[in-house]
Amino acid sequence: MREITPAEALAQPHLRWIDVRSPQEVQESPVPFAQNVPLFDDEERAVVGLTYARQGQEAAIRKGVEIVSPKIPQLIQTIQSHLQPHEEPLIFCWRGGMRSKAVATFLDLVGIPVCRLEGGYRAYRNLVVQTLEESATYPHFLVLHGMTGVGKTMLIQRLREEGYPVIDLEDLAQHRGSAFGTIGNLNPRNQRTFDAFLFQALRGLSGSPLCIIEGEGKRIGKVVIPEAMMEAQIRGTHLLLYASIPVRVQRILHMYTQAATDLEQFHREVKQAVSRIEKRLTPAVRAELYEALEKRAYSKVVELCLHHYYDPRYQHSMKQYPVSFQPVSAENFNEALQTIKDIYLQYASAPAAT
């Protein structure tokens, strides 16, 4: 059994990361590419923790052994089932403590070559934070800007589907970056989860000197974009997409309604979102907005929100942006897509992109 650091482990693709923490721990602080094979489930972990609090460490260890002993054969079998012939398990828990040591020992005793992550999840988390704080981590960004509804997210998704190097920050945050950002089947991620997925996305760029992103503010939902990434975004090449109000309304409705299976739930979510911005609207606009809501005239709701809330805020924020913009018409989606591809190829082939 050998111990290695997270940086060393990431450089060895034959290692299969096995996370032996409880499901709740993994949900709150995941390693996206790891396989969870919990030594204790959530209830068992709570029992061991309570035993430790009431009776001390020795009693907690005994309780843990009592819980785990009957599960050892199945635990080993489950881990083996996740291994390809060339792979070796890398076992980790929260701090690289007793749980990972126990599981690694079980595997070692039955002759399975095994590694253990030094410092556990906390060491991995420290590496993630340190990496995201370094400016050298980030490539040159081709940044898509534009008012709500011009199609930035749709373009990012299509470019990703076609194999272009893309980081979709709103997808990583599981939030659409607005007061309406949680409508639909989205579960906004916490900071640790967002950082882990961003770290993994950056590693997946495979050394590409240029990456396409959507221009974002410092915060998306519950998460904050790393300062070094914000600085890299400023240094990037900036495209300003524009489209007419009718086109933008149509795209917004499509984005928010395409996955809506429960129309009543969708209506409640829209009302909740409107309530979060109503204080910034005049009484007359507020009355018109709620009248449209009652009639379920969602096109009118979107149009009012654009005119009286989103567009003024976006125009103000863009005045604070210390960069120059290259305008791109997004009235026609496919033409905008092709224009962005052309600009990407122009910059990707230029020495300045590196």
From TrEMBL:
Gene3D superfamilies: P-loop containing nucleotide triphosphate hydrolases, Rhodanese-like domain. Residues 11-133 form the Rhodanese domain. Keywords: Selenium. GO terms for molecular function: tRNA 2-selenouridine synthase activity. The keyword Thylakoid does not apply. It comes from the Bacteria. The keyword Cell division does not apply. GO terms for biological process: tRNA wobble uridine modification. SUPFAM superfamilies: P-loop containing nucleoside triphosphate hydrolases (SSF52540), Rhodanese/Cell cycle control phosphatase (SSF52821). PANTHER family: TRNA 2-SELENOURIDINE SYNTHASE. This is tRNA 2-selenouridine(34) synthase MnmH. It comes from Bacillus thermozeamaize. The lineage of its organism: Bacteria, Bacillati, Bacillota, Bacilli, Bacillales.
